[in-house]
Amino acid sequence: MSQEQTFLAIKPDAVQRGLIGPIITRFERRGYKLRAIKLIVPDRSLLEKHYDEHKGKPFFEKLVGFMGSGPVCAMVWEGKDVVKTGRAMLGATNPLNSAPGTIRGDYGIDLGRNVCHGSDSVDSAKYEINLWFQPTEIQQYDRAIEGWIYE
Ligand code: UDP
């Protein structure tokens, strides 16, 4: 079974709005395994590395300011195809284009308040997990329910 991992960050807007629980519940209910979780106010250096691909774009400063404005709930989730499925569960970047039933489609309206981040590829997941977490913060454990989730 693939042990793919993805990085998810519940953004400051969703932490303030009390959406940590509902978002985690969706990934737990789907069957994915939580490997790491922490509340962190990311500093500018971390955010510049995280959003490196957007450096120089008009929205970059606002984005970095917003993401550092309060606690973010950073997580590592594991399971089969979790990068692609996690993105599908999030919905489109702009919540107004996100289908109902997705996290952004159910909880968001504005692009700059789009609730949750998820890695967009296996490579960026590896980069982001390494950026946000120390190896000792990532837990390795077995779940008895595994056989009821995977055939
Ligand atoms: N963003 C923004 N204005 C834009 C484009 C993006 O505020 O015109 C923000 C938005 O919150 C988005 C983040 O920048 O989630 C990163 O953009 P990206 O295209 O990587 O989208 P994502 O991978 O988060 O769906």
From TrEMBL:
CDD domains: NDPk_I (cd04413). GO terms for molecular function: ATP binding; nucleoside diphosphate kinase activity. Keywords: ATP-binding, Kinase, Nucleotide-binding, Transferase. Signal peptide: none annotated. GO terms for biological process: CTP biosynthetic process; DNA damage response; GTP biosynthetic process; UTP biosynthetic process. ATP binds at K11, F59, R87, T93, R104, N114. Its EC number is 2.7.4.6. It comes from the Eukaryota. Its cofactor is Mg(2+). It holds the Pfam family NDK. The keyword Transferase applies. Residues 3-140 form the Nucleoside diphosphate kinase-like domain. SUPFAM superfamilies: Nucleoside diphosphate kinase, NDK. GO terms for cellular component: cytosol; mitochondrial intermembrane space. The active site is at H117 (pros-phosphohistidine intermediate). Belongs to the NDK family. PANTHER family: NUCLEOSIDE DIPHOSPHATE KINASE (PTHR11349). This is Nucleoside diphosphate kinase.
